[in-house]
Amino acid sequence: MQLASTRGANGRVNAVARLDEEPFMLTTELLGGAAHDGDLFDLLCRDDIGALRAVLERGASSGRPVTEPFDAPYRRPRKILGIGLNYRAHASDLGADAPRKTPASFLKGDHTIIGPGEPIQVPSGIGRVTAEAEVGLVIGKPCYKVGVDEAWDYVAGLTAVLDQTAEEILLENPRYLTRVKNYPTFFSFGPWLVTPDEARRRIGDLRDLVIATKHNGTVHRQAPIADMIFSPAELLSFHSHVMPLYPGDILSTGTPGAVAIEPGDEVSCELVGLMTLTNPVRAQDGGR
To answer: How many CB atoms lie within 10 A of CB 65?
Structure first.
């Protein structure tokens, strides 16, 4: 199953699902009378994605077709948790040592969120900015102190992420991590949330899922999940022992390679075989 959100010309947001090829709106009627009005966040908080599948299989044919552009799946998670230097090649880009014992992580505010096709806005005066393609894990139910072997049971879906960094400032001092990660528009995700079972059906072993950072249509760097220093399950388990994770929280698992971006560019995250997320790059004042 794949889930997404769309936004109409009037600003109204609707949740969308896809079981096969054609997506359709998740209406109150389709959900068997369960009230729904809005994006995916409400559905995630209900903690019943599995039950939703059965409902959709019974009533998919009655869903309204999708005619509106895709939006970010939602915009108000409780937290966005990012992982730094989770591929050795990316660590070498920054002249840094990759973490050996435990992951390096940071938090981002929801003010950074944009969706597919929205411009990444580069502020003036902050120097080199990079975009980093990543696979994100969307938490599907509350988890706290879970083991690695059970970590995937708490994942509602996988999604594509573009995580931006004011890299020139970061290189001045690694303690500036919160600052360099939290400019508006510095976190794009979507368009789809793909449930783990659907991802396995399409990819096979999830360790073979390839994440690619693409710059102006050309692959800049790519690598499979198998090349991560800490696997997605290890990342989720580790952080669940630090803090509780809640439905809708996003755990972005690190990038195989960052690419410098400038106004006028286009950057993409491709989860090969699952989805592609693309955003144009603009100056913060709206110019190219």
So the answer is: 9
Asked if residue 99 has a cis previous peptide bond (ω within 30° of 0), the answer is: no
Cβ–Cβ under 8 Å, residues 252 and 125: no
User: Within 10 A of 266 (CB to CB), how many other CB atoms are there?
Assistant: 14
Lowest-pLDDT range of 40-44, 172-176, 183-187, 278-282: 40-44
Nearest to 182 by CA among 109, 285, 81: 109
CA distance 158 to 161: 10
Is the Cβ–Cβ distance between 49 and 62 less than 8 Å?
no
275-283 and 187-189: which strand pairing?
unpaired
Residue in 146, 182, 185, 161 with CA at minimum distance from that of residue 253: 161
Q: How far apart are alpha carbons 201 and 204 in whole angstroms?
A: 6
CA distance 280 to 188: 11
Q: What is the pLDDT of residue 66?
A: 83
C-alpha distances (whole Å) from 9 to each of 89, 196, 205 are 42, 32, 40
Using DSSP bridges, classify how beta strands 187-189 and 113-114 pair: parallel, antiparallel or unpaired.
parallel
pTM beyond 0.85: the answer is: yes
Domain boundaries, the chain: 2-62, 80-283
Strands 193-194 and 258-261: unpaired
Contacts of 61 by beta carbon, 8 Å cutoff, 6+ apart: none
CATH number of 80-283: 3.90.850.10
Pairwise CA distance, residues 146 & 152, whole Å: 10
Could you tell me where the beta strands, DSSP code E, fall in the chain? 2-7, 13-18, 24-25, 80-84, 104-108, 113-114, 120-122, 129-139, 155-165, 187-189, 193-194, 210-215, 218-224, 250-252, 258-261, 266-271, 275-283
Which strand (E) or helix (H) includes residue 170?
helix 167-172
